[in-house]
Write a structure and sequence with these properties.
inorganic pyrophosphatase (n-terminal core), 3 domains, six-stranded mixed β-sheet, alpha/beta, 372 residues, 12 helices, Diaminopimelate Epimerase, Chain A, domain 1
Length: 372
């Protein structure tokens, strides 16, 4: 009787060692074939990706959390994959994936709620999906091909979730990502097993901040590096301190960050009191780059106050970054989701396009959301 065998070939052939001859294979290929015992000595196996080939996709947010989450996973589980990412606010990413039966998709640090329809289509097409995130998800689909690791607690980020999954194999990268996501207490708590000197811990803080800073912009033209390019530059480095010492991209980001933050620091708030502060930045590339990291710094410097930073858009309206008070880390997502293009998480959220005519309504809602 014929038997059906299924193997996943990952640069090795020992899983099918009962057959005598295996030509070299390209990358990772899922092979399904029907064999009979008499024919076992020689089985034709495809050497290029064909109808039986398994495709891999890594879909990730272009900020520090998304990049460092993927970096940890691929250090632990190397894989040649198609990278799908973009500027930080480009989160409807799953719609770009064309996948089918047997393909594997990893999704990191983008809202399931914003990708629900595309996710369902990919699952129905036969793709397997690992989804790790900390943003608002809504109802999580119950599907045998979906593995969801989603935690929306305000002191958690995607890289820390991946770190838990990997049992701390690449903890320094998770610490850097937590700093980049403005989770300073979580970062320092996670770093305790590393027993780092304070200057080394501050270096990871700088690294996470700079990677996060690179993700902000209206378009990829605003960024120093496309997030996929930055990921490829850091991926050869299992040690983040070696990356900072040897990769020129880090110096580029560190210097650009310092210059842009100095410009932002000269902008006075439109309104400010003990509970809220609202800033408006001009339509300029530096302002678009710095909006997220400057919002984070304002939140740390005034932990009892909520912050809204609006950046003027070239076609009118504003991009909005909101930070809840660090003391509570609650309410930013609810406020932003009340506007059509808003979303995010409890401590930090945003609105991709706030029309000029909605500015007054936003200001009132912002003050009301964080009134004590």
């Amino acid at each position: 009787m014929a038997q059906v065998f299924e193997w996943e070939i990952l640069f090795r052939t020992e899983s099918a060692g009962h057959c005598a001859t295996f030509p070299p294979l390209e990358s990772r290929v899922l092979v399904r074939t029907v064999i009979r015992p008499a024919a076992c000595a020689m089985i034709p196996i495809p050497t290029t990706k064909d109808t039986f080939a398994m495709a891999f996709y890594d879909v990730f947010n272009g900020d520090a959390d998304g990049i460092c989450a993927l970096h940890q996973l691929r250090l632990a589980e190397p894989r040649d994959s198609t990278l799908i990412t973009g500027v930080k606010r480009d989160i409807a990413l799953l719609g770009r994936v064309q996948a089918g039966d047997g393909d594997q998709i990893t999704v990191l640090d983008v809202s399931l709620d914003k990708n629900r329809e595309a996710l369902q289509q990919l699952l129905d097409a036969g793709a397997d999906v690992l989804y790790v995130d900390h943003h608002y998800a809504g109802e999580i689909p119950d599907h045998p091909r979906l593995e969801a690791l989603i935690n929306t607690a305000p002191d958690v980020c995607t890289s820390l979730l991946v770190n838990g999954r990997l049992k701390g194999q690449y903890l320094p990268w998770a610490v850097a990502a937590a700093f980049g996501d403005n989770l300073y207490d979580s970062a320092r708590h996670a770093a305790v097993p590393l027993n780092l000197a304070e200057n080394r811990l501050k270096a990871l803080e700088t690294l996470g901040t700079c990677i996060n800073y690179n993700g902000y912009g209206a378009t990829e033209a605003d960024l120093f590096f496309h997030p996929a390019q930055l990921y490829r530059r850091l991926h050869p480095f299992a040690d983040p301190f070696q990356f900072m010492a040897e990769e020129p991209a880090f110096a580029t980001l560190r210097d650009g960050y310092a210059e842009d933050m100095a410009r932002a620091g000269s902008v006075q708030p439109e309104s400010a009191d003990d509970q809220t502060a609202l800033f408006i930045l001009p339509d300029a590339a530096w302002a678009r780059r710095v909006s997220g990291v400057y919002s984070n710094e304002l939140a740390r410097n005034h932990p009892e106050r909520a912050h809204a930073l609006l950046t003027a858009k070239p076609d009118g309206g504003y991009v909005v970054s909101v930070r809840a008070p660090v003391s509570t880390r609650e309410g930013a997502d609810d406020l932003c989701r009340a506007f059509p293009s808003g979303g995010g998480r409890k401590a930090a959220a945003g609105i991709n396009h706030l029309p000029v005519e909605d500015l007054e309504r936003f200001e009132k809602a912002f003050r009301a959301a964080f009134a004590r």
